[in-house]
Every structure is written in C-alpha cells, then in structure tokens.
Design a protein that fits this description.
Structural class: alpha/beta
CATH class of the largest domain: Alpha Beta
Number of helices: 8
Shape: globular
CATH architecture of the largest domain: 3-Layer(aba) Sandwich
CATH superfamily of the largest domain: NAD(P)-binding Rossmann-like Domain
Number of strands: 12
Number of domains: 2
Helix content: 25-40%
Oligomer: single chain
Radius of gyration: 18 Å
Strand order of the largest sheet: 2-1-3-5-6-4
CATH topology of the largest domain: Rossmann fold
Length: 245
C-alpha cells in the first residue's frame, strides 16, 4: 500500500485526493491519500511521523512549499533553482524533494497562452514554477516590492518586474496569488488593451471574480484545475518509483 499526504493550511477543499483515487483505481493499486492540514509549528512532528511510519511521502501546497526545503535530505535541480518543493518522497527515511508544478504548468497552459507579453501576478512557489516553465516567453512579474527579485532573476535573468498596473499592456495574464479564494476579491477587473487570455491557478471556486470579469470582456479564461491534475500525475509517478525532475 502507498500511504501519502497533502501538507498545507486550510486545504479542506483540495481536489488532490480525488485525482490520486482516480489514478490508483485505474492501476488497481492500494493508495491512501489524506490531508495534513496544520500550522507551521506542527511540521517538524509531521516530518518525524512520515519517517517513523514509513509513509511513501507527501505533496506540499501553500503556504509551505519553501518552508519544507529545510527538512529535505536531497532535492531535484528544479527545487534547488526554485527554492520550492511540492512533492516529497520518503526513500527509506531519506526525504527527497521534487517540483512537479513546472510540468503541471507546461501541460496545462503551454498551448493556451498566446504569443506576446505575459504578466504573472505574485512571486510565491507557484509563480516561481510558472517562470521556470515559461522561461522562453516575454515575462513580467507584478510584485509589491523588490525583496525577492534576486531569487527570481536566478530562474530567468531577463525577467521584468513592475510595481503597479497603471499604463501597462499584456497579452496573457496569470494570477498566481491566493486572492481569488475570496470570491468577492480580485487584483484587478479591467482587461488590458491587447489582452487575449487570463489564467487563475485557483480552481475553487471554479471561476474566480478575476476570471469572471475577464470573460465578460471577451478574454479567454482558464482556471487552475489542469495544472493541479498534471502536476499530480507526475507526483503519482514519483510515488510509484518512476524518475522525474
């Protein structure tokens, strides 16, 4: 039996469990997946629990993708560059970190995004994975200050930054913040002149206020479920012992 968990905070609405059930039922294997919803100070005990019980591993979601790094014994190249892990495999008591968000982003959005300038809102673990996945695009990050710009520039040296949304124009907009979890809030609601697409990595609610407003203005929209699904497919391979980076 594979016993795995999802580590995060306020994750009761996560759909990860149903994806792993679907994948494991197709393979006809026993796969137990549970939420580990906890506060920051509880993580050390959780890590000990994983090692002592021989659990196969766990996925990591907000806000712990960077925090979990300190508990890893080894990590993939993507994790080293991004400073964020979303999948941890227990290899006989040795914790190995991976980042399957990069694959998930590519699989979900590569064909959806139009050629042109792309704006990413946010700079957390998901935003870093998006920058890594789409390094070949003309990317700009909207951030509130420059405190972590050096980390992001290591991922993409020619990355652009803006600190307000006035007098800007972009073809693609990706919301990589958690603002959309509150159905009454959006970072902005007016499309840019050249905008063709809008992505929100949130999938609950299915259509955030941001996406709803963009759709009303003729913009093609896509939520975060496909990214969740494809990163889970890659993580599932890791749980089964198949290589990945």
């Amino acid at each position: 039996m594979y016993k795995c968990y999802l580590l995060g905070k306020n994750i009761k609405n996560s759909r990860s469990g149903e994806i792993y059930r679907e994948l494991s039922e197709k393979d006809k294997i026993d796969f137990l997946y549970e939420n580990a919803d906890m506060n920051l100070e509880e993580i050390p005990e959780f890590v000990r629990f994983i090692k002592e019980t021989g659990a196969r591993g766990f996925n990591v979601t907000a806000p712990y993708k960077s925090e979990i790094i300190k508990y890893l014994d080894e990590m993939s190249e993507a994790v080293k560059v991004l400073g964020a892990a979303n999948t941890v495999i227990n290899e006989n008591g040795k914790l190995v970190g991976y980042n399957t968000d990069v694959y998930g982003a590519k699989a979900a959005y590569r064909e959806f995004l139009r050629y042109g300038k792309t704006l990413i809102l946010g700079r957390g673990g998901a935003a870093r994975a998006l920058v890594y996945a789409f390094k070949d695009l003309d990317l700009t990050l909207y951030v509130r200050d420059s405190s972590e710009n050096d980390i992001l520039l290591k991922i993409k040296p020619d990355l652009n930054f803006i600190y307000d949304l006035e007098n800007c124009d972009f073809t693609n907009i990706i919301n990589a913040t958690s603002v959309g979890f509150n159905e009454d809030k959006a970072i902005f609601t007016k499309k840019f002149n050249s905008q063709k697409t809008a992505v929100d990595i949130i999938y609950t609610p299915e259509c955030t206020l941001f996406l709803s407003e963009m759709k009303k203005q003729g913009v093609e929209i896509k939520n975060g479920y496909d990214m969740l699904y494809y990163q889970a497919v890659e993580a599932y391979k890791l749980y089964k012992g198949e290589e990945n980076d």
